[in-house]
Design goal:
Elements (H helix, E strand, L loop, with lengths): L5 E5 L6 H9 L17 E7 L2 E7 L10 H15 L3 E7 L6 H13 L3 E6 L22 E2 L8 H10 L15 E5 L6 H9 L17 E7 L2 E7 L12 H14 L4 E7 L6 H13 L2 E7 L6 H14 L8 E3 L11 H12 L5 H14 L4 E2 L2 E2 L1 E9 L4 E7 L4 H15 L8 E6 L8 E2 L1
Parallel strand pairs: 1-3, 1-4, 4-5, 5-6, 7-9, 7-10, 10-11, 11-12, 16-17
Antiparallel strand pairs: 2-3, 8-9, 13-14, 15-16, 17-18
Length: 444
């Protein structure tokens, strides 16, 4: 397997960097909006051109004189991305005059001595090719005219980019790396936890809710084992979503669940579990994702708040009582050392398989002791049971007679959990009738 070249996309706010990223990766991966500053952290995507795969890093807008703590953090993140890049794409807006921010980016590139491709964006037609002459004054040579929105000139630009890549370096094929999605309502400490796990200021942390707009992915080492960590934007109800940016951020947070093995659900130790945590946990269980509940800011709350939080978790999150609960502090790192062991236990449980012979013996015993209730004059009978899948564990019951019903399926799930350690993972139980097509199924 080849080590991927790292390409950072740099430029002042609102020049079309994220639009260009979407064009390169051939999908709407980065949030795009007319307001400046939408991209706040550096995000990574795998891309390919002319047979060369590479890692594309989308950064927030670089500003020479950031006026607020948040914009200063965005500039810092962009500069960190440049420091770790093999090649930089500098994006300028061909439709505006050169700004102090453009000049600041140019000086940064010249000092860094990192290979770069200079792109003049928003050149939407051949008539506008001559409108980019003013960019020569930046001292970076000729800018390549492109239209990220329409795709014009992007093929030539990507050809020039690939030519700057370092020679391919072969590395050993990595083993499968499990992914952990950090979930929770906005401003509960998700990015703080990611930075603590990564050992660096990898994503922007601010008291402003909604600082993270896109899922952030990176590989971290936890107790000697690599994990992919996904820091997501807070999932909001549709009625609470105010604009397109929040809509797509929430959409991508949900989309990230499909690629996660285990979710780390953060609960504010001061406020406890609310309807929002309850709703997120429901989505996680429905998606079949493993779950570890983290009671964050535990060192900052008094005994009364701790009792309130524990009671709220027991009440609102009772339906995921199978999930381990850890008390910790993302800010100080207190008790975070317990996290890798809990995650490994969940991963092991998700991959566990119950032998068919054992399962049928147990199901017969449970059914004889507690037969399914009579429904509409018929009593269902389980003839055969098998575990069809893992990750999440999925059991299929072949049934005759009436319906088992959700209450009896929950009874069976509880019996299975008592017999086997399925810590931290949802269990799916599907029923099929004899001589019935597979699409007619019930599930818990």
């Amino acid at each position: 397997m080849s080590k991927l070249p790292v390409v950072a996309v740099l430029g002042r706010p609102n020049v079309g960097k994220s639009t260009l990223v979407n064009r390169i990766v051939r999908r709407k991966a980065a949030v795009v909006d007319e307001q400046s500053g939408v991209t706040r952290d550096r995000r990574e995507f795998e891309a390919e051109w002319a047979g060369r795969r590479f890692l594309l890093v989308d950064t927030g807008g670089w500003e020479l004189n950031p006026g607020e703590e948040l914009t200063a953090g965005i500039r810092s993140q962009a500069e960190v991305a440049v420091g770790g890049a093999d090649v930089v794409i500098f994006v300028a807006d061909s439709t505006t005059e050169i700004t102090d921010d453009d000049q600041g980016v140019a000086r940064l590139l010249l000092r860094s001595e990192i290979p770069f491709v200079f792109v003049a964006n928003k050149v939407d037609s051949p008539k506008r090719d001559l409108d980019i002459d003013h960019l020569w004054t930046l001292g970076l040579g000729e800018a390549l005219p492109v239209s990220a929105l329409h795709g014009r000139g992007t093929g030539d630009f990507l050809d020039s980019l690939v030519e700057l890549f370092p020679a391919e370096e072969e590395v050993d094929e990595d083993e499968y790396v499990a992914s952990l999605a950090i979930m929770g309502r906005p401003n509960v400490g998700k990015s703080t936890l990611l930075n603590k796990l990564a050992g660096e200021e990898r994503v922007l942390v601010s008291e402003v809710p909604g600082t993270t707009r896109d899922p952030i992915n990176l590989i971290v080492d936890l107790d000697g084992e690599p994990f992919e960590i996904i820091d997501t934007a807070g999932i909001k109800r549709r009625t609470r979503i105010k604009d397109d940016v929040e809509f797509y951020s929430t959409l991508r947070a949900r989309e990230s669940l499909r690629h996660a093995d285990v979710a780390l659900l953060l609960v504010d130790g001061q406020r406890g579990a609310t309807h929002q945590e309850q709703r997120i946990a429901e989505e996680l269980a429905k998606a079949g994702v493993g779950l570890v509940i983290l009671l964050n800011k535990w060192d900052d709350v008094d005994e009364e708040a701790r009792l309130h939080t524990e009671d709220s978790v027991a009440d609102r999150l009772a339906f995921v009582s199978w999930a381990p609960v850890l008390r910790m502090s993302a800010k100080t790192g207190a008790r975070i050392h317990r996290l890798p062991k809990a995650v490994r236990a969940v991963l092991e449980a998700r991959r566990q398989r119950v032998p068919t012979t054992e399962l049928n013996r147990l199901v017969r015993r449970w059914q004889e002791a507690h037969p399914p209730p009579v429904r509409k004059g018929k009593r269902a009978r389980i003839i055969y049971a098998t575990q069809a899948e893992t990750e999440p564990p999925t059991f299929v019951l072949f049934v005759r007679g009436g319906d088992l019903g959700p209450d009896y399926l929950r009874f069976l799930e509880n019996r299975i959990r008592e017999e086997y350690d399925f810590t931290g993972t949802p269990i799916r139980i599907r029923t099929r009738r004899r001589h019935q097509s597979p699409e007619h199924e019930a599930e818990t």
